[in-house]
Amino acid sequence: MLKARGRTPPFRDASGRPAPASVAECGRIDLGGLDQWVMIRGRDSANPLLVVLHGGPGGSETALFRAYQAGLEDHFTVVYWDQRGAGRSYAPTIPPESMTIERFLADLDELVDALRARFGPRKVVLLGHSWGSVLGVLYATRHPDKVAAYVGVGQVSDMAASEDASYAYVVAEAERRGNRKAIAAMEAIGPPPHEMKALAQQRRWLTALGGALGPGGSLMRMTVHALRTPEASVWDIVRLVRGSIFSTKAMWSQLTPINLIRDAARFEVPVVLVLGRHDMQVAAPVSAAYFEAISAPAKTLVWMERSGHMPPFEEPEAFARTMIDTVRPLAAGA
Q: What pLDDT digit, counting tens, does each position of 163-209 carry?
């Protein structure tokens, strides 16, 4: 399945030998005519398949999930995918015109089919974070025959409403704190919709004013921790920056019209949404409204009370418990 293989540590049994039922491999796979980086890790390959759909666009989170959620590999066979234009799948030669939502969904379908060919024709669990939650919802609603359950984290729903709420939060918090620089910056860019330069300005103040992460959250601390994982290197930071700039520039205009409350609220698979109480990057109240609109065989909303936009890395133990106790039984049932 994989070519141009990389290195990732094997799982070992009590005697120190590689665990016979485990899988630990990484490398490239052709998806949509482009070599894309995939890592597959699980202590028992018979465990449910979990495909991680990172945020961004272009924001590979492989190292972060490995740093904070490696324990999931004991309960799932975890598939970490650096999407087209992200992380180790980034290349300056990627045609910007290939960066479309439909192309990403086709890439994901090819990946799921390759996994089912390799591990048997079973359904996969999709875990979509932020931008990845758009892919997850659209794929799960289109291909319920291939999906056991969908997990949305920092769930995108109505982009226009979320951006309006995010901007309003910055203005209100800046006024509450008497932060004249932030007030002036928001007045200069005006309310959404925003182009890339204005968006970067809004996100910078959102982070500074506590709307991106929960109390005590630190993106720098998360990054340092992620760089200590066996597969990571400082080059991952370079790839992350380049991939994020390229991907967001190519795709932001496709994201702003998204309204999943209107267009994708009917599921034929179980749905679990995990939301950070302090998330105003993808505004949690708008995500919660989407949950209320969803129809599904079963649906669960889990609030992470000390988290913002990054619950898997802000409250790793609580997030892992949700995945093991709530999500894994859904996969086993499927």
A: 999 999 999 999 999 999 999 999 999 999 999 999 999 999 999 99
Q: Which runs of E-coded beta strand occur in 54-109?
A: 77-81
In a domain, 211, yes or no: no
Domain around 70: 23-159+217-333
This prediction has a pTM of 0.96
As a whole number of angstroms, the distance between CA 310 and CA 277 comes to 11
What distance in Å separates the CA atoms of residue 244 and residue 267, rounded to the nearest whole number? Answer: 30
The residue written with tokens 């390229």 in the block is 246
Q: Determine the Cα–Cα distance for residues 284 and 272; give it in Å rounded to an integer.
A: 14
Task: Please write the tens of the pLDDT for every residue from 226-266.
Answer: 999 999 988 889 999 999 999 999 999 999 999 999 999 99
In a domain, 69, yes or no: yes
Q: For the domain that residue 109 is a member of, what is the CATH number?
A: 3.40.50.1820
In a domain, 182, yes or no: no
Please, which residues bridge with residue 147 across strands?
124
What does residue 303 show for φ and ψ, rounded to 5 degrees?
Answer: -95, 130
Number of domains in the chain: 1
Structure tokens at 17: 């030998």
Stretch (H or E) spanning 128: strand 124-129
Q: What are phi and psi of 273, to 5 degrees?
A: -110, 130
